[in-house]
Amino acid sequence: WDETHFGKMASYYINRTFFFDVHPPLGKMLIGLAGYVSGYDGTFPFEKPGDRYEQHSYVGMRGFCAFLGSCLVPFAYLTVLELSKSLPAALLTAFILIFDTGCITLSQYILLDPILLFFLMGAVLSVVKCNSCGDRPFSASWWFWLSLTGVNLAGAMGVKFVGLFVVLLVGLHTVYDLWDLLGSLSLSLVTFGKHLLARVLCLILLPLALYTAMFAVHFTVLNKSGPGDGFFSSAFQSRLIGNNLHNVSMPEHLAYGSVVTMKNLRMAGGYLHSHWHLYPEGIGARQQQVTAYLHKDLNNLWIIKKHDSDTADLSDPSSPVEFVRHGDIIRLEHKETSRNLHSHQHEAPLTKKHFQVTGYGINGTGDSNDFWRIEVVGRKAGKLIKVLRSQVRLTHVATGCILGSSGKTLPKWGWEQVEVTCTPYLKESPNSLWNFEDHINPKLPNISLDVLKPSFAEILLESHMVMIRGNSGLKPKDNEVTSKPWHWPINYQGLRFSGVNETDYRVYLLGNPVIWWLNLVTIGLYLLIAVSTAVTLKRGVQLTSELKELARVVLCGGGLIMLGWLLHYLPFFMMGRVLYFHHYFPAMLFSSMLTGITWDTLLKFCAGFLSPSATARKVYGGVFLALVLLILYSFYLFHPLSYGMIGPVASDPSSPMAGLRWMDSWEF
Amino acid sequence: MLGFLKKPVVVTAGINMNLMALTVVGLISRLWGLSYPRAVVFDEVYYGQFVSLYMKRIFFVDDSGPPFGHMLLALGGYLGGFDGNFLWNRIGAEYSMNVPVWSLRLLPALAGALCVPLAYQILVELQFSHCAALGAALLILLENSLITQSRFMLLESILIFFILLAVLSYLKVYNLQKHSSFSGSWWFWLLLTGVACSCAVGVKYMGLFTYVLLLAIAGLHFWHMIGDQNFSNVSLMCHFLARGLALIILPMAMYLSFFYVHLTLLYRSGPHDQIMTSAFQASLEGGLARITQGQPLEVAYGSQITLRNVLGKPVQCWLHSHTNTYPIRYENGRGSSHQQQVTCYPFKDVNNWWIVKDPGMQQLVVSNPPRPVRHGHIVQLVHGITTRYLNTHDVAAPLSPHSQEVSCYIDYNISMPAQNLWRVEIVNRESDTDVWKTILSEVRFVHVNTSAVLKASGFFGASLPEWGYRQLEVVGEKLSKGYHQSMLWNVEEHRYGKSQEQNEREVELHSPTQMDISKNLSFMAKFMELQWKILTLKNEDTEHKYSSSALDWITMDTNIAYWLHPTSGAQIHLLGNVVTWASANVAALVYVCLSLWYLVRRRRKIYDIPEGAWQPWVAAGGICVGGWAVNYFPFFLMEKTLFLYHYLPALTFQILLIPVVLQHLSDHLCRSLLLKSMFSALTVAWFSSVYLVHCTFRPLTYGEPSLSVPELKDLRWKDSWNILLRKQ
C-alpha cells in the first residue's frame, strides 16, 4: 500500500535524486537513513502494492518504523502515570495501545505515521514531565524536558503538517502556564521574564532552527535531478545535477523560429501546455485546450513566429537570424499540434471573469486573435529578450488581456492540469508573468549561462508553497467514496493494506472494535464526569482531600488530553482534501490515554463510597481486571487483521474471521 | 383581584424622544424614494423569482438558506397584491406595472430603519451614556452600505435587524435578572431572544453565528450564577430550564414551523422537482403525483416499472435501453461485447420501462393474486420494448474500464453465456422480509454471478460518445465500497402488466399510467429531506464579476455595482462610508490592545479602571468584538462565492464598538479637563467628516442625482473600486 510511496522516497534519498512530496522531509529522511544503515541499496522500484521484495533488504526500514511504533506504549504509559499518579490507569492505557490492532498494523510497515506518532507522543510526554518539574524551574531536568519538547515539536512538524496540531496543543498549554505564573504575585516580573524567554527559546526558536536544519539537510542530500523538478521554478532547478538547467548552455537571446518552453512565475506554476484534446461542449468555444502542466513533456514546446509571416525554416541555414525584441508582436505555435496560442471573448472554464485561451488554426494559419505582444518587465522598447532571466508578459493584441495561469485545477476533461486564462485585469502579479526555460535554436551559438542561484531562504519558502499547493490539490474526485471524519471514532470502515482476493495474504487496517468503542464511550463518560466535577467545585461544595485530588486529575490531566483529542480530530471536519482512516490515529492515542484516566478516577470514586476499604479495593481491582481481560480477548479475536489473513473472505463461514464482521462496512 | 375598585388604574407612558427621533430619521433615510429605480436591482433578480414562485405556490429549493427570509419578502408581495407574473431574468430590467415595487421593498427597508433605534438601545443597555448611544445610532444611520442594502429586496437588512433584536433582548434579560427574575417582562424578553435568534437563523444561516455567540454568553453568565451562593439549587435549576426552553427548544420549534409554513404554502410541482426523491415529488400537486397516482404499491413479478437513479445529481435519469449495440471497438481500441446498450437517460421515454420477471417462470404478467418481490429475491429485468434481459459480464465498460459493462443480452451464439440474474437488496428496509415498494424503497441490484452492483456512473465524467447518443453510462461496479447513492434505484412509475403478447405489451407501455391513491409523506420526513437537500446541494461555484475575498472587506477594497441607469450616469453601488469603516477597524484594534493591557495588569493585581467601569467594558467587548469576529472569520474557511454584503452583519457590530471605545477613552484616559475638551472637539470633527463622506457618496447610494463622468471619476477613491463610466 503506501509503502510504495514512502519506500520509493527512501530510495530517492539513497540515490540522492530530487523528488516532490506534500509532506515535509524528516520522516522520509529517517526511513532513508534506516534503509541506508541496514544496507538497503535503493534499487527496488516500489512500483505497485503487492510486489515481492525478493532479495532487497527492507527489514531495516520496517524494523525502524516498528521500533518507533512500539515506543508509543511506554510513552503513553509514562504520560498517564505522570498525569494521574496512578499505576492502574497507566497500565490500562498501555494495554489498550499494545492490543489495538490498528496501532499494530500501522506501525508494522514503512509509513510516516509511526514516526509522526512517535514525535507527537514524545512532545506530550515531555510537556507533562516538564510540568511536573514546575516546582523546580530552571533546574537541569526542567531545561532538559523543555528543550526535548521543542525537539519533538520540530520532529512532529517535520514529518507531516498534522504535527501542527500538537504544536498548537503545546502552545495553548504554555500560554495557560504562563498566565498562571503571571498571576502568582510571589514571582517578580524579572523571574516571569526569564520564564517567558526560556519558553520562547525552547519552544519557538529551537524547533524553528531544527526545522530549517532539516530542510537544509534535505536540499543538500538531494542534489540530483529527479521526477519532482517540474514543480519548481527555473532557478530552483538549476541547483540539481542532471537537470537540463544545471550548468546550462543555450542561446542567450530569444530569436524567431526558436523552440521554447515557457514557465509560469507563480510558485509551483506550470509550463504552458497544449494537447490534442478540445474543450468539452458548453465550456467556451470547442477549440484545443491550453493548460499549464507541471511535468516536463514534449507538449510544452512552442515555436516563436512573427505575426505576419511564417519564419523561414530553421533548417535553411542561409536565412538570417532575427531576434525578438521587447514590444514585438508575435505568434506562438504549438510544436506538436501546429496550432496557435489563441484567445477570445469567451469566458474561461473556471475563472469566469477571464477569457478563454485555446489552440487555434491549422498548421500555423489562424486569425488576428493569435497575436500577442511580448513585453519584458522593466525594459525599454527594442531590447532583446533573455532566456531564463527576463520576466515576460504576453498581452493579447485584440482584447488587451494578459496571458496568465489562475492556479485552479481543471476537472477530468482537462486531465487535472492547471487552467490558463487571459486576464483583462492588468494587475502585476507573478500569475501573469512567464519566463523562457528551454530554448532550442540550432543557428545560434550556445552560451553557458549561470542562472542566479537562489538563496536558502528562497528555496525554503518555495518548497513550502509547493507543498501547500500540493496538499490543497489533493481533492477527492467526484465518484470516489472517501472516508469521512465521523466514520473514524466509531471504527466504521478500515483501510485495506494489502491483498484483495481469497488466496492473498491480506492485511486490513482497522482498530480493535472493542477498544475503539470503549474509547468512544469513555469520551462521553469523561465529559459527564468533568462537567459534574466542575459544577461541584463551582458550587463550593467541600470535598475531602482525596476527592480534591481526583478532581484535579480529571480537570487538569484529563483536560489536557481531551484538548489534544479535540485538536487532532475536529480540524479534519473542515478539510477539503482527501482524508483517510489513518488520520485519526493521533487522536486515537489521546483518546486511549483519556480512557485510562477516566476509568481510573471513576472506579476510585465509586470505590470511595464502599466503606470498608477491602471491598472497595476488591471492586476496583475486579473491574480493572475485567477490562483488561476484555481487551485481551478482543485482541485474540481480531489479531488476524494486523498479522495477516489467508483464506476465504469473512462472509464465508470457514474463514478465520467468520462471525467477526460486526459491521457491514468492514471489508475483510 | 378587583383592585381597581380601590385604586384607579393609572397608565403612565414615558416616551424617549431620542428614540422616536432616531426612528423617524431612520425611516426617512431608508424609505425615501423607495420605488426608485423601477428596475430589477442586483440580487433582486435572484430573490424575485422565489417571490414569484411563492405567489404561484410552486415548490422550489434554494440552497442559499432557509425559507423564512424568502417568505418575508413574499409577504411584502402578497400585501402589495403581486400576482407573480414577472420574468426575473436580467439585472436592470424595467418592472412591469403589476409588480408592487414599493411594498416588495418595504419590509427590508423597515428592518433597516429599525436597526437605528436598536443600536441606540443596545448601547444604553450596555450601560453607556446616551451620548455614546446616540453616536452609535447616527453611525448606523449614516452608513451608506447599510442604506443601500436595506433599500432593495434583499435579506441582509432583515438579518441584521433580527441579530440586533436578539442581542438587545438578551441584554434586557441580563439587566432585569438582577432584581426581577421570572417577572413578566423578564419572560417577555427571554422569549423574544429565542424568537429573534430563530428568525435570524431562518433568514440566513449566517444568523447561526450570532445565535452561537449569544448561547455562549448566556452559558458564561449562567456559569457565574452557579458560583453564586445566593441561588439555591432549585432556583438554579429553574433558571437553567427557563433558558433551555427559551434559547434552545423555542428556536428549534420556530425553525420547524418556518418549514411547515413553507411546505404548506408550496404545494405545486415546479422547476426543482427533480432534485427531490420520487416520494417527495409524488406529494406535490401536478408533478409526479399526476403520474404516480393510483399506482400499485408493491412491486410484484410481472410488474412494469421505470427505475430512477436515487442520486439525481446533476440530472435525474432512468435506467434505459434501446436497440443500438455497443460498438465492437471503441475509439481507443478496446473491445466490447457488441450487445445492446444500457444507459441512464435523463428524459421520460417508453424505452425506460422494464419488466420484473421471476427467473423460474416464463410469464411476463402479474399473476392473480400478485406475488410481491421481497428483499433478497432473485429477479430478471426484461426491457419492455425489446424484451431483452439486463445482463452484465466481465467486459470492461465503455468509459470506466475498471467496472463491468452492462448490456441487454443478445445471444450471438458465442462463448458468452447470459448472466442475467440480479438480487434485489432493499437498502432502507425495516426487516429482511420487506416488500419492494414503489417510490419508497431504495434498491441495490447485485449481480448474482459476479456480485457487481448496478450503478449509474455517467454523472462523474463525460457522457457516452455519439454511438451512445450522449446518454449516461451504466456499469456494474465490482468494488462496492459502502452505499453510494449512484448505486441505488427506486421504482418511479409502476403498473401491473396484463398483456402476454409482445405487440399488446408495447401498446400497454405507451399508454399512461392511471388510477388513484396518494402516498403522503409525513411533515418530518419532508422536512428532513428538504433540509438535507438545502445543506448538501451545491451549485457549481461560479465566480462572479463582483465577488471578493474576505480579506478585501476590512479595507473595503471592493464594491458591488447594483444598478446602472440605462441612459444617464445614475448608478447604485454597495459602497461603505470610508471613514466609518476605517474608524471601526481602529476601534477594534484599540479595544483589543487596551483589553490585553488591562488583563495583564489586573493579573498582577493592578487595577487601572474601577470595577464598575470594567464590567460594561468587558460586556461591550464580548458582544461587539465577539459579534464582529463570529460573523467575519468563518468566511475565511468557506469555499462558496463571497460578496461584500456578507460582511455587513460583522460591520454593524464593529460600528457599535466605536462609541464604546470613544467614551472609554474620554472617561478614563483623558485625565485633565483640557484633554477631555480637546478629545470632544476631535470627536465632533471626526463625526462631521463621517457626515461629509456620507453626503459625498449619497448619489451612489440612492442612485440620484445622476453624476457626470468627471464627477464619477472623482468618487473613485480607490483604484480597485469598479465604478461604471459610460463612454461619451
Q: Could you explain how this protein is built, in words?
A:
Chain B: Its main location: endoplasmic reticulum. Chain B: Belongs to the glycosyltransferase 39 family. The complex is a heterodimer of chains A (about 675) and B (about 725). Chain A starts with a helix and ends in a 25-residue tail after the last helix. Chain A is α+β, with helices and mostly antiparallel strands and about 675 residues long. Among the domains of chain A are: about 60-110 and about 485-665, no CATH class; about 250-450, Trefoil (Acidic Fibroblast Growth Factor, subunit A) (Trefoil), CATH 2.80.10. The longest helix of chain A has about 35 residues, at about 190-220. Helices cover about 45% and strands about 15% of the residues of chain A. By secondary structure, chain B is α+β, with helices and mostly antiparallel strands. Chain B has 2 domains: about 35-260 and about 545-715, no CATH class; about 290-515, Trefoil (Acidic Fibroblast Growth Factor, subunit A) (Trefoil), CATH 2.80.10. Chain B is built from 22 helices and 14 strands. In chain B, strands 9-8-5-4-1-12 form a 6-stranded antiparallel beta sheet, with no helix packed on it. In chain B, strands 2, 3, 6, 7, 10 and 11 form a 6-stranded antiparallel beta sheet that branches. A two-stranded antiparallel sheet of chain B has the order 13-14. At the A-B interface, helix 8 of A face helix 10 of B.
- Sequence stretches where pLDDT stays below 50 over 5 or more residues of chain B: 514-518
Integer count of domains of chain B: 2
Largest interface: A-B, 25 and 23 residues
Helices and strands of chain A: which structural class? alpha+beta
State the strand order across the main sheet of chain A.
Answer: 10-9-6-5-2-13
Our count of helices of chain A gives 16
Report how far the terminal alpha carbons of chain B are from each other.
79 Å
Query: Structural class of chain B, please?
Result: alpha+beta
Pathway (chain B): Protein modification; protein glycosylation
Enzyme class (chain B): transferase
Transmembrane segments (chain B): 9-32, 68-88, 100-120, 126-142, 154-174, 186-203, 208-226, 246-267, 578-600, 612-630, 642-662, 674-693
GO molecular function, one term (chain B): dolichyl-phosphate-mannose-protein mannosyltransferase activity
